[in-house]
Structure prediction request, 411 residues.
Amino acid sequence: MNLYLIIFTSDHFQKERTYGIHKTLFEALEKYFTLHLVPYTEVEEIPSNAYKMAFICSGGVEEKVIRNFSLLPYPITLLTDGLNNSLAAALEIAAWIQTKDMRVRIIHGEVEEMVQNVLLHHKAFAAKRAIKQNRIGVVGTPAPWLVASHVDYLLASQRWGVSYVDIPVEKVYKHFEEITDDEIGMDASVFANRALSCQDATPEDLLRAMRFYKALKQVYEEEKLDALTLSCFTIFNDIKTTGCLALSLLNDEGIPAGCEGDLQSIMSMLMVKRLTGECCFMGNPTFIDSHHNEILLSHCTIATRLTKEFVIRNHYESGASIGIQGIMEKGAITLFKCGGECLDEYYLSEGQLVDNATLANACRTQFRLKLDKPVSYFLQNPIGNHHILIPGHHAAAIHEFMQQNRCKLKG
Prediction:
């Protein structure tokens, strides 16, 4: 990984001297990056898509930075180790930038803390670059009850560089009708044998769901997609199978795939994939327990790779076809949602998965979560219905990513 530091110093720039003064920080950064020290007067020599950051070497550079702040990548980040009055200069510069109603951040502290912050910053930079020109397939139309989950395709493209691609369900149906049970019989058998048990669903249900997965995967490949969301209930009404198994298997393969044509949630899932490399779970907040600061998150599909075991069930709302009941290990989780018409706001909290619930009147996979942030957010200021669960601690990386992209934190 290359890191280009744009050097601002009150003295005439001498690479060896600058390196020697700030050697402790630079050597720590060089454990992770190939470091390039570039004076601000030569910034045009830095590759346009390179990872770069302003480094404040000393005091007395305030006017230099202000005159040349347009050279700095936005949102502006100032790195300083505090030597030679550099922190004082960074504070003055940051205050001036804020008067212009622009975002600025100072990375400063203990050396290891600064390195970790630079690594988070780079992770967000790399994810933003990776998400550009991604294609999100919208198979069918969003569910009519998702009245607050609309996305303006043009604004999303301008902000994130992604394209939402509308795909008629008939394209999937055509493949579905062409696939024979003989072609998918072995796959269905393997999936069934992996399950802890099979309840409520028939072998015929499983075969139809596996045929649908194969058809959806073919469309994903033909359209050169990076993620997809599915109009599940339209499909069930038309061809009498659910998308629960298909979405589970696609997510198992590392393909972000979401339910109900939810445009915001699938973008959230794609963000998580590009930023953390992790698979995630899209669910409904089903019950809120304000006294214990807990929520129940549920849905009828989950990537089996997230589970320690899973049960093949029928779909909760329809009482037919295939649903997946996943059981996850208890432990740390992160809950996330990117929302808004142009995907410019987000919710984020870490917490604990404290139990796998088995309520009869809820979607098949059910997780009881104790959150670090007040659950009153869901009752007072929610970003829609669906939220995204990621096993583990990812709040710092996600927050850095969303802040770099000028998004507003809610809750």
